[in-house]
Amino acid sequence: MRAWHFVGTHKPFERVDIPEPTAGPGHVVIDVKAAGLCHSDVGILEDEKWLDLMPTLPVVPGHETAGVISEVGEGVTDWKVGDKVAVYPMVGPMGYGVNGGWEDRAEVATEALVPLPEGISFAQAAAATDAGMTSVGALTTGGVESGMKVGIIGFGGLGQIGARVAHLRGAEVYVAEINEDVWDRAKEAGAVKVAQSITEFKDDELDVIIDYAGFGTTTADAVETVKYEGTVVIVGMGKLEATLNTYAMILGRVTVHGSNGGSKEDIAESMKYMASGELSPLITEIDFEEIADGVQQLVDGTARGRLVAKVAD
To answer: To 10 degrees, the CA torsion angle through 21, 23, 25, 27?
Structure first.
């Protein structure tokens, strides 16, 4: 069957043919319908630190996966052939410790399965498994609730969801995004102000700033912008290091949290909003054979919204 392999840092993804998986005890095999692309997929190509998550190479990347169960293993009673599911990527973790969704069929532990609600597409469900989960999980980490002023850095695959769900939770949302072409969409999602840099909201006394970009300087700017005793949440991994102004952190009593992924409940919440139409993140679908080209779009910064590969009809 078709698959993509990660073979090592500083080496391109390889399009390969590999044997089909079978469902072991407590596992199912799903026919993958949609598999997302993420800036983390760029990260594994560029930074050796990611190898800590990958005990065995090569591995099939792809941690945003949705499909239909086609085989169940021994002891599986709560799931059946034909069930439509999304995959919670923190088990494995998907696409790092175990093969991910960049393949025609994937073996998945039942503990990672999340049922799809009616009214959601496979592409949306795939995006919900990381972009949705991680975005909502960061809001939870930051304690975002109604009445708060929340800064969002980056209105890409993650930030567009985080901004919208923060608005749906009743927060006042401020978006920092360097690409002015998406400013109108940010306002449509509920942002009361949009600017190129989070520092432009210094006078707005933001309670929480969530950095969905994570390019080092973006986090540094957040620390110097958030209000006294405010909270900064780092989500994006555009870079794996940041230099922070400890003077600003100490005098401002700023709390900085890292937020990694989220819960199955966060995925379910994201899919619920998508199915109802309240959350409609921009998703660009590409063909399975175009995955390497899609990764290059992420490198170049030309990707529109969340990229999701269509694996099968």
So the answer is: 100
Q: How far is CA 249 from the centre of its chain?
A: 28
Strands (E), the chain: 2-5, 14-17, 27-36, 65-72, 84-87, 105-109, 113-115, 149-153, 172-176, 191-195, 208-211, 231-234, 255-258, 283-287, 306-310
pLDDT digits (tens, 9 = 90+) for 6-64: 999 999 999 999 999 999 999 999 999 999 998 889 989 988 989 999 999 999 999 99
Go through the domains of the chain in sequence order and give each one's CATH number: 2-128+262-310 (3.90.180.10), 143-258 (3.40.50.720)
Six-digit token string for 29: 């095999």
- Pseudo-torsion of CA 260, 85, 302, 198, nearest 10°? -40
3-state secondary structure of 23: coil
Radius of gyration, CA atoms only, the chain? 19
Provide the whole-model pTM.
0.83
Phi, psi angle pair for 2, to nearest 5°: -75, 145
DSSP label of 164: H
166: left (phi over 0), alpha (psi -120 to 50) or beta: alpha
Structure tokens at 291: 């995955």
